Amino acid sequence: MIRFNNDYNHGAHPAIIKALAETNDTGYAGYGTDTWCQKAEDVIRQLCQKEELHVHFFPGATQANFIVCASILSPIDSVVCADTGHINAHECASVESTGHKILTIPNHDGKIDAGELESFVASYYEQGEPEYLTIPRMVYISQATELGTIYSLEELKAISAVCRKYGMMLFVDGARLGYAMSAANADFSLADLASLCDVFYIGGTKCGALMGEAVVICNPALENHFKHYMKQNGAVLAKGWLLGLQFYVLLKDGLYMDITRKADEYAIELKKAFKAHGIPLHVDSPTNQQFVLLTEEQMKKLAPSYVFEDEGKADETHHVVRFCTSWSTTKEDIDALKADIKKL
Amino acid sequence: MIRFNNDYNHGAHPAIIKALAETNDTGYAGYGTDTWCQKAEDVIRQLCQKEELHVHFFPGATQANFIVCASILSPIDSVVCADTGHINAHECASVESTGHKILTIPNHDGKIDAGELESFVASYYEQGEPEYLTIPRMVYISQATELGTIYSLEELKAISAVCRKYGMMLFVDGARLGYAMSAANADFSLADLASLCDVFYIGGTKCGALMGEAVVICNPALENHFKHYMKQNGAVLAKGWLLGLQFYVLLKDGLYMDITRKADEYAIELKKAFKAHGIPLHVDSPTNQQFVLLTEEQMKKLAPSYVFEDEGKADETHHVVRFCTSWSTTKEDIDALKADIKKL
Amino acid sequence: MIRFNNDYNHGAHPAIIKALAETNDTGYAGYGTDTWCQKAEDVIRQLCQKEELHVHFFPGATQANFIVCASILSPIDSVVCADTGHINAHECASVESTGHKILTIPNHDGKIDAGELESFVASYYEQGEPEYLTIPRMVYISQATELGTIYSLEELKAISAVCRKYGMMLFVDGARLGYAMSAANADFSLADLASLCDVFYIGGTKCGALMGEAVVICNPALENHFKHYMKQNGAVLAKGWLLGLQFYVLLKDGLYMDITRKADEYAIELKKAFKAHGIPLHVDSPTNQQFVLLTEEQMKKLAPSYVFEDEGKADETHHVVRFCTSWSTTKEDIDALKADIKKL
Amino acid sequence: MIRFNNDYNHGAHPAIIKALAETNDTGYAGYGTDTWCQKAEDVIRQLCQKEELHVHFFPGATQANFIVCASILSPIDSVVCADTGHINAHECASVESTGHKILTIPNHDGKIDAGELESFVASYYEQGEPEYLTIPRMVYISQATELGTIYSLEELKAISAVCRKYGMMLFVDGARLGYAMSAANADFSLADLASLCDVFYIGGTKCGALMGEAVVICNPALENHFKHYMKQNGAVLAKGWLLGLQFYVLLKDGLYMDITRKADEYAIELKKAFKAHGIPLHVDSPTNQQFVLLTEEQMKKLAPSYVFEDEGKADETHHVVRFCTSWSTTKEDIDALKADIKKL
């Protein structure tokens, strides 16, 4: 049984397990005030080419998402995102549970359009900021998106410009940031992100770590008492160095990109195999998540050997099905599935 | 430098690191629906001698505390606890941030008294449940308490009886439950807890795991959609088996009790050494946390070799100082500190 | 200047002012525990032909809306409503500010369709109540709707049946209930509402009172500590008899229906005048709110003599414009506007 | 039966009823954007001798209290007040329901002490603003207090100075501000309040209006989008001019002070009568609320003719009992009670 259902079905890259074992007998300061968190923050500063940013290590992505929102938004503020945005569609209203409305605009293959965003936001101001409507204060996008697509540098710049025009914060969910950066058509860097957005995170859980997300605060105003928000919402791990250590291992020498590049390449092999066999794509993704349209019969043929994720019906005869690769995907896994795709 | 400042300054017991390494190449279902979580739940059911309970694995204790409260309390309900209760004094108002008032009653060496609890609660009902006061719906206690003391079985029964009389839920914070169960004067069992309270947890982070708390829901009514609350607040770990596996290793053959018993014994050795040298105790604790009164001069003498926690001034000349033991404390650590206590 | 912009631009029906003046020298118990609130509740019970219901008097409709939601929904529950629903579009996220997500479905002239509602809700259960989605626990509709339209008895029964099938509460916002009941095509009664929904309210502010909404709790389970929710959110007026008295005056002898029937008739006169003059309707409303499409030139012609509400652009050349009638609208007001419509 | 149980058991001062009747046929803009609210704001500016302040009219005091808190505090911020503070003891956790912790310090006859306040706040900063504690961001006091006592100008200045030293906002609950200003020993003015605190309110409900509180925002930074908070929490009355009109009537020519001065004088007559008869005072109040200690037998003697408020047992033989005067208290009421006090 080979798991393609998601990118978090195995433990961590062996280098991480090794590092955890080697440091297990050492004592550290708690709550993220240790030396590994400091080292990882330093590496991230270098990669972002920005000295004044701050990094906080979270156990998970849902925490990162709702706590960042809670730390920035006042009760009368709302966050704008794609209808497919993870905070809107997959996190059990964690943002609303902290008191904030999510305003959605239509997605285009998982992405929002800067022009549509501007029209949407402008309408609030053109009405004179009426008190019966919330203030759109933040824009949330995912890079890569929930459909595996990525924003180009130009698109990021356009969204960032709209945000700055209207005094909105730009928050980039990078749970799969590695896969986005490693995509063949990626033209943005961490330094670009650090200059274009106010806060983003570098995903660990889905990119080779046991768990963890590195939240990077680029806008110094957002750093103010940020750790209080983390503590209040249970995101300050007692043994916080476990997170810092993992990111240090992943980022110090490029392992993070090695992992995600390989996974992207494997995923593209699968995409090509599906296309070659006439299986329609649900979306043309350049990253480790591939969404194709399969008939129920095709799904049944693959089910005995592979785990994949059924995303629901696309039409009368097809389901949208997701295949993911990750650090643990092997050439053998890919070759096996490619061979079986040909038999569909 | 030997760390006695807390019980979470080293990684995990080696058996856990070994298990993580051995299972790293295996694929698992996500979000706690895997085989290890199931096995750990089964072991806990056996230890609690109760078939119908449910177990949920949380990354951390603050999450466990506020999410359990959020899942039980309506906005008009409050939780009653000692003024020293962790949720009142150490978690940045995480409970209030979900909308609930904490009503405090005085602690006695960290514990609440069942009689005082009853008087406090009864006054609400004797006033006719006025709408300008919240409904005391839950009682929160810690076992062991924040001061290292433990409730006897009789005390637990008395508190439980008050709760049932007034329709309140009893929630036991067991972040240090192992140390309480291993205390020389402990006379309660997991089965007692499972029958006396509505929900409790078995602490992992402070008792030898990398991280994790096993929340045990004893009252079936509280199980309803509980995982939605976890998801909404970011407590469902993607690679949830990492938590189940750790608890399985700790609980299946008694390792949990071995770890905490040894730590308690070491702590009692320290307590005896302090007393023998005439150092006054702040509280007489039977568990791994020892609180003593040191002068600033005494603190300065110990500071070069040991890390300990200054809890603030007790009087003009003394500070309350905490010394903790844990899975990583060695006989050499204890002997060294005992020798230096004699020199104070 | 004649005000047609809304139905709350004048004080109260003279009978209410008279009653307030006459009772001003009498002392009453506070917080709604007085004799007038009791009398008004009794009248409402009779009108609803249901003995076991409870009535609570609120100062305003936004309070009624979000407090009813807060009293029924758990943090993991959501409320389903039309995208045009008042709680979604006009109350500054008051429901989200209490922690709950609003799930919207498309409106049809302001109304939701029972079949579409069922499909929407069923998809949650067909997915197995996944923890990453909230539980649709309540349905909110407005009668009359925000566009002036009304649900037929058959439509109400169909929506109620879907709610009961899936264990959802049905909440009817009756801020303009009088206008709905007085509509020429209305075929439902207060008794129908009381049997079909779990909670609804009889609007006062927009139907002739100084202020106030009478929230009717039909489902006894929802009465439990309801007043605590009101108090917590500031909706228990100290001089609560002011609200009970107004509803008693409005409801005891049919004044409420007299007021709203006359206003509806006047509004229909306006609708006919617009149609006769070739002004297109935005929606065909049978109640006191009329929405028509005017050019900017037409708006300019009316602006010197009338206040009306510009709802924004409908297309390149038209705006949606609202004209409302109320207790204070006179035959002279209507005749004047009718004459001026002919000159557009 | 003469009502001394509270100061909100009758309607409004006749001048208000008259004004409501006289303006009933006039149309106004909604939501507090009318001419009466503007006029009332102008009068308050003059009385406060401060041009740049803003005034918002609320239907009730609980709303004013929790909405002001919600508008100022971030989730990680807390409000400091006396344990007897209305927000802590009488409003069903309305502040906590918006997510904020209340930190209490001991009251002294209902008041807090500036020195104790400073010690309390300083301890947070001396600990280094730890993330497990909330940030004390606001101080809440009541003038007059819940026990009828008042702060002197010197006391207000001292509290204000502590607030400014630590960057805290000072919020004065003035539900009974008139009675405080009219007290014989009062030495502060509205202008003093406006310069010493960040926000306060002038109570209407308990000082002669039908309902309403005038929230005065003295610190311009707090005005930002304040009305959004009001709308979100249901405090923007549709017919908002009803509130502005009442305050205009009360404040334009000194009626507010006339009402409260008379009520205070009557209350002092009662206090003297109780003292003269040997009835002990619970607290020595200079305002319209008098708290005395009565035996159950004494209470029974007064109960047939008077309504008063039993505040609970003071000791084995006495209850604390409150007697209030208000705009509707007459010389006859006072003379009758004085005569009956002599018979106790």
Give the overall silhouette of chain A. Answer: globular
Beta-strand portion of chain A reads 15-25%
The oligomeric state of the chains shown is homotetramer
Terminal CA distance of chain A reads 18 Å
Over all CA atoms, what is the radius of gyration of chain A?
Answer: 20 Å
Can you offer a commentary on this structure?
The structure is a homotetramer of 344-residue chains. With 344 residues, chain A is α/β, with parallel strands linked by helices. In chain A, 41% of the residues lie in helices and 18% in strands. Chain A contains 14 helices and 12 strands. In chain A, helix 7 (153-165) links the parallel strand 5 (135-142) and strand 6 (169-173). In chain A, helix 2 (35-48) packs parallel to helix 11 (241-251) and helix 12 (255-276) runs parallel beside helix 14. The longest helix of chain A is centred in the C-terminal third of the chain and has 22 residues, at 255-276. The mean pLDDT of chain A is 98. Chain A binds chain D through residues 31, 70, 74-76, 98-99, 129, 131-132, 134-135, 225, 227-232, 236, and chain D through 31, 70, 74-76, 98-99, 129, 131-132, 134-135, 225, 227-232, 236.
